[in-house]
Design goal:
The protein is of the alpha+beta class and 246 residues long. It has 2 domains: 64 residues, Orthogonal Bundle (Arc Repressor Mutant, subunit A); 174 residues, 3-Layer(aba) Sandwich (Chorismate lyase). α2 packs across α3.
Length: 246
């Protein structure tokens, strides 16, 4: 085993056993080089491999930080609430509502809902956390007429899908479009990532059981903390299960 591989395995063991917990800053390269009696380039090689594998993250003016492993999301093929996804991963979901009011919708939303120009929609912007890490920024539009008194709901505590279910308007069918883009200034600020970092951008159009369009959402997921499951069932030729990890 090469020296850098030995250092890499040693650091990985310390991450796994909690010596270096998630969010902590590991010792500087010079300190590690001295501790393990190797050159600084050897330490740097080991660290860069762990950065590439997603165990460490290098931040300007802070140092090298231990990252949480990527969170498995089934958002691509399962309709469930964010809270359920986080609970499945053993994490605590938290929500901060950044904006919630009736607005005149942008053209893409008006066309999606087949609305007249004067009709308004609810616009709900939420920042979703996994434990204390900001994970996804979601802007959701909902037509106002079928959802009276929606403004009274506290969406820091209440799941949107649970609320819709309670009104017999649950989302049963969605069409989602996935793009991988660079984070804009708003996303980088709220998600605490470097500008132009890679993000998953989902556009979702949600339908009720009766076929009515009730949800139009734009969700921006951090690319460094998420991967998505894709499950394709080919009934005539067996089952295909694929992990999408970027």
């Amino acid at each position: 085993m090469a020296k850098y591989e030995e250092i890499q395995q040693t650091l990985l063991k310390k991450i796994s056993d909690g010596t270096y917990p998630v969010g902590s800053i590991i010792p500087k390269e010079l300190e590690l080089a001295k501790k393990y009696s190797v050159s600084r380039p050897t330490v740097n090689h080991a660290i860069q491999n762990l950065v590439k594998d997603g165990f460490l993250e290098q931040r300007k003016r802070r140092g090298t930080i231990v990252k949480r492993n990527k969170i498995e999301q089934e958002f691509t093929h399962v309709i469930k609430s964010y809270n359920e996804e986080m609970e499945q991963n053993g994490l605590q979901a938290k929500t901060k509502v950044l904006f919630f009011d009736l607005v005149t919708p942008p053209l893409e939303v008006r066309q999606a809902f087949d609305l007249d120009e004067e009709e308004k929609v609810y616009k709900l912007i939420r920042l979703r956390f996994a434990d204390d890490d900001p994970l996804v920024l979601v802007t959701t539009y909902l037509p106002a007429s079928p959802l009276p008194n929606l403004k009274k709901v506290d969406f820091t505590q209440r799941s949107l899908y649970d609320e819709l279910d309670s009104r017999k308007l649950g989302i049963t069918h969605v069409i989602r479009k996935l793009e991988v883009k660079n984070a804009d200034k708003t996303a980088s600020t709220f998600l605490n990532i470097e500008p132009a970092s890679a993000v998953f951008l989902f556009h979702t159009l949600g339908y009720t059981a009766s076929g009515d369009k009730l949800e139009y959402s734009i969700a921006t997921y951090r690319g460094d903390k998420n991967y998505f499951m894709i499950d394709i069932d080919q009934s005539n030729s067996g089952s295909i299960n694929t992990k999408l990890s970027l």
